[in-house]
Design a protein that fits this description.
Blueprint: E1 2-5, H1 20-28, E2 32-36, H2 47-52, E3 56-58, H3 61-67, E4 70-72, H4 79-82, E5 90-93, H5 101-110, E6 113-116, H6 131-148, E7 170-174, H7 178-189, E8 193-198, H8 201-210, E9 215-219, H9 222-228, E10 234-237, E11 263-266, E12 287-290, E13 293-296, H10 306-327, H11 329-335, H12 337-340, E14 343-346, E15 349-350, H13 353-359
Parallel strand pairs: 1-2, 1-4, 2-3, 4-5, 5-6, 7-8, 7-10, 8-9, 10-11, 11-13
Antiparallel strand pairs: 6-14, 12-13, 14-15
Helix pairs in contact: 6-7, 10-11
Amino acid sequence: MIIGVPKEIKNNENRVALTPGGAQELVKRGHEVYIQTHAGEGSGFPDDEYVQAGASILPTIEAVYDKAEMIMKVKEPIEPEYELIKKDQLVFTYFHFASYEPLTHAMIKSGAVCLAYETVEKADHSLPLLVPMSEVAGRMAIQEGAKYLEKPLKGRGILLGGVPGVRPAKVLILGGGVVGTNAAKMAAGMGADVTIMDVNLPRLRYLDDVMPANVNTFMSNEYNIRELVPTHDLIVGAVLIHGAKAPHLITRDMLKEMREGTVLVDVAVDQGGCIETCKPTTHEDPTYVIDGILHYCVANMPGAVPYTSTLALTNATLPYAIELANKGWKKACKENRELLLGLNVIKGDVVYEAVAEAFDLPFVRVEEHLI
């Protein structure tokens, strides 16, 4: 198979979909790998490392899309890329369709096969291609939240871990999944007073067992959230519903109950955000203030630490990419249900039910395309 890796063009996105090591594994199996020039430099991988690994370098993004049968990316295609995607081309990347209708319609129009990292799902319902970036984003949420609590950056002026004789900051984490767990670990390690909320009681029991003493667990419901938000300094939204738009757990009216300079970090922004006042921001302009409350809603948080993120992502995606390249998308998805669940749009049809529901679009069973 011919695999193309374009340079990411989303604002301040420095990750790349494939490391030189990943390229070498594909080349070893007889596949052709084409990398857009400078695609890996933001992650610390220059062109010559890809060449040494057996890949070829192409000068433009247009050349990569034109050549490839399978496109591997990190972030969803953005508007300048829509017309570059070809009919029947396999695009393997994060899409987060349910949060952005124009992208969904563009991919339907393209006639491409869209296999989304975020909906590849194991039998235990874990999301293996979302986990590494969720780990990065969860840890970064605390790192960024601690920074923006500083007064010059419009926060409350609180040191997350406090000092002897002064209480630490209070951190509220909404969601006890991968993002929330990693956020809680980081916040606890920095000495904060942490509360993590979830609707899953067995999950709360597990977290209560494994977390340090400065992490408390609390059942998530509107009443309890309203009770806690006025007293917390940093609130992290870490809620995910597989392939669907995130629910609004923090509503606009709750902002008036918070103290000025409270920091909100919405890691769920890729899926529409679990904070009603959330809107996607960039690393170039990451924050905004509403009602005195600082919002950090960067849609590609792991892009700020691209070396770590690219290695972590390739570790997870490469086995699936090899399977797709070896067998073709149709055979691979027939034989591997994890990949099958990653299919969102196939040749003009929406085949992932949550995406169809999000925009009231016709839903076609994926099996109809695998006959």
